[in-house]
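dumping this here before i forget
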Amino acid sequence: MATILKGDRISQGATDTQFVAFNVEDVQERARAYLAEIQQQAASIINDANRNAASIAQEAHVKGLASGKAELEQQIERRSQQLSDQRCKTAVATCEATVQKLAGETTEWLTNWRNLTVQLAAKMAEKLVRRSMQDNDEVLRVWLEESIVALRDSRELRVLVNPDDFAVAGRFLQNLTKMIPQAAQIEVIPDPEITKGGCVVRSMHGSIDQQLETQLERLVQQLQ
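structure:
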């Protein structure tokens, strides 16, 4: 067995030097055990560090994927919203244009329909009135009276009638003098251009056309 002399173990003032014996193999074994323990601890620390690093890397990867996925979803959502807004605007514009076109076509159709209806009604009224005028002269009397009453403050009135209605118009004017004395001074003029059953009353300030076709034309213009 080997021995080692340690200086600090020499007692000061002693007459005999004391030697402490060490087992070198035991020390080496302890050193190896301690080294193995240190290595094991180091390996454990390294393994823990690797596991932590892997966990951190995995977590970072997951977070990166989640962040990238979230960003991608946001981009998709924004793009979808933009496309949706654009499509909505296009659809709205198309609908508005279609509605305006339909409204214009409907208005045009209604106008044409109304004009045709008014013209048809005017033709029907003309036939009915002319048939009534063939049976009696009451229509001419009414129109003469309305015109003269409207122009009774005017002077030098002249009444133009169809030659077939000349005698009838003179008789009506004689009866009208009972209400309007100045009717006796009205001049009755036969005019072949005046349609039968109608009349035109003229004065210095204007005239009133009471021919059937003229009245119907005015009525149609008012209704259209």
